[in-house]
Amino acid sequence: MIDAADRSPSAIAQIDVTDTALYTEDRWQEPFRTLRAKAPIQYVPESKFGPYWAVSSYRHIVEIEGKPEIFSSSWEKGGITLSMQPNSMRPGEKRLPQFISMDPPHHTGQRKTVAPAFGPSEVAAMKAEAQARTGALLDSLPIGEPFDWVETVSIELTTGMLAKIFAFPWEERHKLTLWSDVGGDVDTAIGPGGWERFHTHMDEMATAFGALWQERMTNPGKDLVSVMLQSDSMKEMDPIEFIGNLILLIVGGNDTTRNSMSAYAWGLAQFPEERARLEANPALIPNAVQEIIRWQTPLSYMRRTVTQDTEIDGVRMKKDDMVALWYISANRDETVFADADRIIIDRENARRHLSFGYGIHRCVGARIAELQLVTLFEEMAKRRLRTNPVGEPERVPASFVHGYKHLMVELSRY
């Protein structure tokens, strides 16, 4: 490991934005504001994950994402989270290949296989079912009585969509939620017994999807497992690689949508004038969805590993350095988004958010996330339903997944 003294000095004292308390206590905004203003690329020599670069400005993140040959996503170098070191493995750690944690050309072939399942026509075909399931769920909710929005609405809708995409046994769909929660919990994984717990649940998932794999080999359908089986680039993949990609698709398909749905219930209540504008003009729903995704940023960062000594805007980085691209900060960058801490439902550039990433690794399932969110907003509007939070939400204790564990609300009509 190269000594921290070899790195470009920071203009301010170290700010470790992997501290989970920043997110559970919802006080991450000011540290990132300070970093963007004074040290948009800061070397953090000490953290629970080890040394890393914190990149907090929009323009620097876009620049780095545009150089995948220098800033690698490869699972062999540690992948997309800070939990894995570039040249060593923690006790109990195993590494799972996923196409999001691959570099070209391997990444290109596997992404091309999966992407058609999330194309415009395929997503459009899901609309009617999404409307029916969302409407039925909303019609079952009590009016004027408190309930947990996260468990009752956000989790149920996103898990149901995942079960449909994979043609996973409906009565066992709750397992998808558990596996997603464990698969995305990189902060806990590095703690005592963390990797053992991670791999226990991933092995359970491997067994379940291995059975689906065998079934779809003889009875293929239109689900994603069947699509993977019939593709040239993925049908012969190693079982470990197959499981790695499933974790990616389950976590990616669950966390972004679930936590944006929860942000809808919580965030709009923080800006009642914007909520009233949306209620009065449902045509703004598609843009409001993008604004909620920007404001929430369901995954706080993505990690890259430096493949060669390089320099970004005068800052020197060394080969094998870990680099955290803090999307959560970029989405509040004042040079891109005016009054960035506010939800503004008709924000003209809301779609410029980086919540789905940027460049070759932009989220392949973004359209499905947007479909589910637009559908929820529309079905709520049809019923003239409004969420009224009852107290503060309980937030996920993590620096990677930025979300909500519980949010008590009451529904009312407007």
UniProtKB/TrEMBL annotation:
Keywords: Heme, Iron, Metal-binding, Monooxygenase, Oxidoreductase. Gene3D superfamilies: Cytochrome P450 (1.10.630.10). PROSITE patterns: CYTOCHROME_P450 (PS00086). It comes from the Bacteria. It holds the Pfam family p450. The keyword Metal-binding applies. InterPro entries: Cyt_P450, Cyt_P450_B, Cyt_P450_CS, Cyt_P450_sf. One of its GO terms (molecular function) is oxidoreductase activity, acting on paired donors, with incorporation or reduction of molecular oxygen. CDD domains: CYP142-like (cd11033). Belongs to the cytochrome P450 family. PANTHER family: CYTOCHROME P450 YJIB-RELATED, P450, PUTATIVE (EUROFUNG)-RELATED. This is Cytochrome P450. It comes from Sphingomonas lacunae.
